[in-house]
Amino acid sequence: MKTEPSNLSIFPTIAAIGIGLATFSGCASQTAVTTAYKSEAAADAAVGTAMSAWGAYVSANHPPVSQEWAVQKAFNDYQQAELAAIDATTAYASAAGSNSVAQTQSEAAAMTAASTALTELINLASQFETSTNK
Amino acid sequence: MSPAILQLVIFGIEEAVTQAPGLIAELQQIFANGAPTAADFAALRVKVASESYGQFVPGSSIPPTA
């Protein structure tokens, strides 16, 4: 059974991990696919934890619906960016060493976009939590 | 990866150990595996695609989307 944080204090921690994930995308070695996969899986795990924390926060504090809409949109944006990153990495892996520079750049761009979306999602929810508790 | 970024990530993971043990367990599982297979990519894609806002926020005030 997964133990989730009871509040959003975990968000800066997850943001720090997310920033690190973005930098993994620049690796251009034989382990690039493995690293990209692990980065994408870790990002999804981090978002799951963050969203569970947001869910607990919503249940306890009932923030304005406008804030929930904003976080939902950020989550959906992250989800689409993450799926694009997974697809790009899968395509990169399928090429098995015959990747063009354009393919490599495309994969890196997708990873960066996913990381950016993750960071925006976490920053947004964290910002709402801070403003509500003031 | 620059030393500063690496230090930031290590700090984040150390904090997560105490704040979100469930996340750490999941990260350990992810990083313990070797090279991913096509099945791993497919499983990750299905998992991500199946996630929804309502799944994580059951007490939400906004209606669930399809």
Write the element-wise H/E pattern of chain A from the N-terminal end onward: HHHH
Q: Distance N terminus to C terminus of chain A?
A: 33 Å
Low-confidence stretches of chain B: none
Characterize the overall form of chain A: elongated
β content of chain B, as a range? under 5%
Secondary-structure element string of chain B:
HHHH
Q: What would you call the shape of chain B? A: flat
Which spans of chain A of ≥5 residues are poorly predicted at pLDDT below 50?
1-6
Major sheet description of chain B: none
User: Cα-atom Rg of chain B, whole angstroms?
Assistant: 16 Å
Largest sheet of chain A: none
What fraction of residues of chain A sit in β-strands? under 5%
Q: What oligomeric state do these chains adopt?
A: heterodimer
Explain how this protein is built.
The complex is a heterodimer of chains A (134) and B (66). Helices cover 80% and strands 0% of the residues of chain A. In chain A, 51% of the residues are buried. In chain A, helix 1 (11-24) packs antiparallel against helix 4 (101-132), helix 2 (32-61) runs antiparallel to helix 3 and helix 3 (65-95) packs antiparallel against helix 4. With 134 residues, chain A is mainly alpha-helical. Chain A contains 4 helices and no strands. With 66 residues, chain B is mostly helical. Chain B is built from 4 helices and no strands. Chain B has helices spanning 3-19, 21-32, 38-50, 53-56. Chain B starts with a helix and ends in a 10-residue tail after the last helix. The mean pLDDT of chain B is 79. Chains A and B meet through helix 1, helix 2 and helix 3 of A and helix 1, helix 2 and helix 3 of B.
